[in-house]
């Protein structure tokens, strides 16, 4: 019996691969970490070698294998042109992201446009406490983010915006 496997065998962290056996009537799957299941289609979230044995009503069997591959996660990094993230009102601040092929910047938990290849962001009118973050997508469509505060160096940048001095009364 010729059993074949179709579907997408790659996935990103937090995702899954969909594997589908064709050629038999009944299917038994085994895989990593004690994976065992019945049925033509399986959704798997562990990388490794999966084996399916198919059988038909005549008692014929066939076996095939496929390797599910989990891509590594990209690492979103965001840097500010101001080393201590303290600026005067009206100052220009530039942000540069890395870690992906496409970027989506966020200001105060709101997306600032769609994903694109531009990895710099220069917002205006920033207020004290403004937060800037980025989401990145790599060549496998895997994502990472500083929006959710994923750890040291990968958290949103919070700006301290100092008011301009009041110079009224000076002559």
What keyword list fits this structure?
five-stranded mixed sheet, 18 strands, mainly beta, five-stranded antiparallel sheet, 171 residues
Mean pLDDT across all amino acids: 92
Decide which structural class fits the backbone.
mainly beta
| Shape, per Cα inertia axes | rod-shaped
Alpha plus pi helix count: 0
Low-confidence stretches: none
Rg from alpha-carbon coordinates: 25 Å
Spatial strand order of the main sheet: 2-8-7-4-5
Percentage of residues in helical conformation:
under 10%
Proportion of β residues?
Answer: over 45%
Total beta strand runs? 18
Largest sheet: 5 strands, mixed
Order of helices and strands: EEEEEEEEEEEEEEEEEE
Distance between the termini: 96 Å
Task: Provide a short characterization of the protein structure.
By secondary structure, the chain is mainly β. It is built from no helices and 18 strands. The chain has a 5-stranded mixed beta sheet, with no helix packed on it. Strands 12, 13, 15, 16 and 17 form a 5-stranded antiparallel beta sheet that branches. It has a 3-stranded antiparallel beta sheet with strand order 1-3-6, with no helix packed on it.
């Amino acid at each position: 019996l010729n059993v074949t496997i179709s579907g997408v065998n790659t996935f990103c962290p937090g995702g899954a691969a969909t594997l589908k056996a064709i050629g038999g009537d009944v299917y038994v799957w085994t895989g990593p970490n004690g994976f065992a299941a019945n049925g033509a289609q399986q959704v798997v979230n562990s990388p490794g070698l999966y084996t399916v044995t198919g059988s038909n009503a005549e008692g014929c069997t066939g076996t095939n294998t496929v390797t599910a591959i989990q891509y590594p996660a990209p690492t979103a990094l965001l840097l500010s042109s101001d080393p201590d993230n303290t600026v005067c009102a009206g100052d220009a601040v530039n942000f540069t992201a890395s870690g992906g092929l496409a970027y989506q910047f966020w200001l105060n938990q709101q997306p600032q446009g769609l994903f694109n290849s531009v990895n710099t962001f220069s917002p205006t009118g920033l207020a004290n406490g403004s937060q800037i973050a980025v989401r990145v997508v790599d060549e496998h469509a895997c994502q990472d983010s500083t929006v959710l505060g994923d750890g040291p160096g990968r958290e949103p940048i919070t700006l301290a915006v100092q008011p301009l001095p009041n110079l009224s009364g000076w002559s």
